[in-house]
Amino acid sequence: MTDTPLIHPVILCGGSGTRLWPLSRQSYPKQFTPLIGDETLFQASVRRLSGVGFAAPVVLTGEPFRFIVLEQLAAAQTQPQGVLIEPEGRNTAPAVLAAALWLASRDANALMLVAPSDHVIPDAAAFRTAILAAAPRAAAGDLVTFGIHPTRAETGYGWLELAEGADASATTPQALARFVEKPDEANAEAMLAAGSYLWNAGIFLLSARAVIAAFEMHAREMIAPVRAAVDGAQDDLGFTRLNAAAWADVPDNSIDYAIMEHADNLAVMPFGDGWSDLGDWNAVWAECGPDADGNVLSDNATALGCAGTLLRSEDGAQELVGIGLEDMIAVAMPDAVIVARRNDSQRVKEAVTALKARGVKQATEFPVDHRPWGWFESLVVGERFQVKRIVVKPGAALSLQSHHHRSEHWIVVQGTAKVTVDDEIKLIGENESVYIPLGAVHRMENPGKLEMVLIEVQTGSYLGEDDIIRYEDVYART
Amino acid sequence: MTDTPLIHPVILCGGSGTRLWPLSRQSYPKQFTPLIGDETLFQASVRRLSGVGFAAPVVLTGEPFRFIVLEQLAAAQTQPQGVLIEPEGRNTAPAVLAAALWLASRDANALMLVAPSDHVIPDAAAFRTAILAAAPRAAAGDLVTFGIHPTRAETGYGWLELAEGADASATTPQALARFVEKPDEANAEAMLAAGSYLWNAGIFLLSARAVIAAFEMHAREMIAPVRAAVDGAQDDLGFTRLNAAAWADVPDNSIDYAIMEHADNLAVMPFGDGWSDLGDWNAVWAECGPDADGNVLSDNATALGCAGTLLRSEDGAQELVGIGLEDMIAVAMPDAVIVARRNDSQRVKEAVTALKARGVKQATEFPVDHRPWGWFESLVVGERFQVKRIVVKPGAALSLQSHHHRSEHWIVVQGTAKVTVDDEIKLIGENESVYIPLGAVHRMENPGKLEMVLIEVQTGSYLGEDDIIRYEDVYART
Taking every annotated instance into account, which residue ranges of this chain make up the domain MannoseP isomerase/GMP-like beta-helix (chains A, B) (predicted)? Predict the structure, then answer.
């Protein structure tokens, strides 16, 4: 084992699934939520790839999620090796290449374990064992993909065909014949029956060197712009911001299409069936361990005469009751509720598209808005007023700003706020308030060691988030 | 028609149905909600019994609902003849007797049209015609009950058996053989097939004199305490508050059991089938006029591949999506959601009982709390703080009060507040605030002509509604 190069987890964290709406929305996708258990899927993905043999993680994410990534890593007491910000989503191929180029410059022998951030693998130790077992093969230059033992004729995944003589139940990397695109039902049934096919989970163990070589051979056009984006990257508050101008020239492609379907130095590492991509609510139901009646119930959920049903209430202040439901899912949030036949879970995406077309904000926006300094939520919106709860992290500060169309009343209900209003700076304690007149230049900071919670009452003729002039911002948003 | 005595609508408005939970809760039952159309069921009941031949309504209700009744009558521009407050619910018999005694002292020939406040009768004109047609018979001393043409073998209602030779489709009162208690399925089927049975809708046309005579004959024990409660009633802010001490001795009974099942001066007025007691969500679905797919959708509700399904979102800020649902109901509120098979609608009551047993406040409490001066709702409850939206009616005032455990910040966001804090009285306009220290004696009034809306931020160690000392109250709650 001592000869194996260090394995660098490369966590792909840019995507935004809508199939688990309303819990997963564009503004706060499912990897950042505690869908199963107490930690978020992203945190579980990071924890799973830590320990002996593993380097600190490299995270690839998008601009809107960078502070959520940092916050969740901090909460999991993980110091990342790097957080690479993709200026725009370009699918997995450029992300993997960027990570390879970035890592190669730090560790010439780096192995990369590329994994999505929104999958579930309950047996983390077994997964690490499989990774370590595959490491020599990857170090030798092969492109190792992880193949999951299939349990159903799934048409939603790509499949992997093992080479003649390879053993699907082996615990070492096997020869791979080819990548199979998402099949139709008949082909899926045939592959399930054949026993020589595995699911493609989108998890790879690759040496940075082999990745770069594969791109040079099969997707040469991607090299120059991605290299320019990495070489031109800027360090920004601890993030590595890939160069946007260079990135704009990067073609959009998946790692499967760009590389894997063309390469001949492929291997597959078979892995047990304790894996799920939580692709829809049906999968969440299955992963949560249904009870004797086949039900999965969250806190605040009550089932009468239900079977095979998922009832999730996502808010402690909301009760959810199901009566006589069979093979259904119901997920309730204060601003959005979905009820569906479990077998129609895939159509959730369609519903979100319909809501989006109608301009419904819940289609894409999560009720809680995460910012670098903490988060806020709107408690009520009236005709000429709005009330928000604002939570500011210890040591954090909002930008120095002013508004053209609203005044604000701030009442501190927990902790201490340092408040700037025009030329005056003062400390506001719990149960104290301050008034920010229209046009005043103001800032809110939390100088303390505990979270500061503040109720903001806005009044004015226009209350949009875009009525803001920023003068200074520690998060470089001016 | 000129010889017919005036018909006094007697609206029974004390009940609290839980079968339409979460829209109908103990603290705000279904008759006060706009379940169908824009007016509430109570308002529709009052409007239905107005016009030529009808006196102003007499409403019987309970202590918690008295201001809601007044408010909804005012909104419907109806001046009641009286609002009688039952100190405790004692079922329909004492309520009808109290109304009869109260009316007899004002109009010796009074006819009473006794009706629940939570039924739907789409063709109000036809109903009034039927009432007027039955009036001579009631004036002559018979007890006239309204019989609905049955459309199904309903086991949830009592039935009425017509006398030999009576005509179920007549438009004049017919002879009634007997009241039939809620039947089993076989008996319900037999009655439906026989054609000589009608549903008992709990609607009666009776002379006050005949009611008193019937009680004297069949339920004599009720007379003395109910008379004492009526004679000892107190006028209180326009309400007639029945004497509580006397009322405590009144036995609990329904008008059917106490009188109708024993009387021999009965008649039945057949009525068309455009009637519903909205007894469960299935009935609401049916009354709302399902579309071509059998669906009933509220605003903010989206159906994909649904049939025979009711999707109701009760809040403009909450989206409800149904996918692949067949014969289901889903009703969403920000604090409670129910999803049920339409045929299991009757079990909603059971669910509410289960929630109650767990001490869940949503089982009984509506999120909006109606008070004599307006209403309030809690927007967020934290560990040591709570934020409320408070809406005060023009000219209304909260009690002069103080709290032991909390301070309050008030921010006016609409209208003008007249605020008393200890010895100081001042006017607070939109976008102004005032602080109420712990222990300060304070009051909030709306001196204006428009609704006043105020955001209250409470901080303190205990934030219960019962931390209140009332010094003065225009609504007699001190």
Answer: 323-355
Radius of gyration (Cα) for chain B, nearest Å?
A: 25
Residue B109, domain CATH: 3.90.550.10
The length of chain A is: 478
CA B158 – CA B154 distance, rounded (Å): 9
| CB count in 10 Å sphere of residue A190 | 13
Using a CB-CB distance cutoff of 8 angstroms, which residues of chain A are in contact with residue B409? Answer: 409, 411, 433
Contact A409 B384 (CB under 8 A): no
Asked if A305 and B336 come within 8 Å (Cβ–Cβ), the reply is: no
Which residue carries 């225009």 as its tokens?
B474
CA–CA separation, B115 vs B192, rounded Å?
24
Residues of A in contact with B430 (CB under 8 A): 384, 459
| Residue contact A380–B385, C-beta within 8 A | no
Contact A57, A49 (CB under 8 A): yes
Q: Which of A271, A296, A320 is the last residue of a domain?
A: A271
Distance from CA of B34 to the nearest CA of A (A): 21
Are B238 and B287 in the same domain? no
For residue A459, how many other CB atoms are within 10 A of its CB?
23
Distance from the A47 Cα atom to the nearest Cα atom in chain B, whole angstroms: 31
Measured distance CA(B336)–CA(A313) in Å, rounded:
9
Q: Rounded to 10 degrees, what is the CA torsion of B151, B153, B156, B162?
A: 80
Give the domain range for residue A218. 7-271
**Residue A365 phi, psi (nearest 5):** -100, 130
Q: Best residue in B297, B326, B337, B350 to probe A by mutation, most A CBs within 10 Å? A: B337
Chain B nearest CA to A339, separation (Å): 5
Q: What CA–CA distance (Å, rounded) separates A300 from A317?
A: 8
Cis peptide before A394 (omega within 30 of 0): no
The SS3 assignment for B114 reads strand
Paired strand residues for A332: A313, A337
pLDDT tens over chain A, length 478 residues: 446 789 999 999 987 778 999 999 999 999 999 998 889 999 999 999 999 999 999 999 999 899 899 989 999 999 999 999 999 999 999 999 999 999 999 999 999 999 999 999 999 999 999 999 999 999 999 999 999 999 999 998 999 999 999 999 999 999 999 999 999 999 999 999 999 999 999 999 999 999 999 999 999 999 999 999 999 999 987 899 999 999 999 999 999 999 999 999 999 999 986 899 999 999 999 999 999 999 999 999 999 999 999 999 998 889 999 999 999 999 999 999 999 999 999 999 999 999 999 999 999 999 998 888 999 999 999 989 999 999 999 999 999 999 999 999 999 999 999 999 999 999 999 999 999 999 999 999 999 999 999 999 999 989 988 999 999 888 877 6
Asked which of A301, A324, A357 is the last residue of a domain, the reply is: A357
How many domains does chain B divide into?
Answer: 3
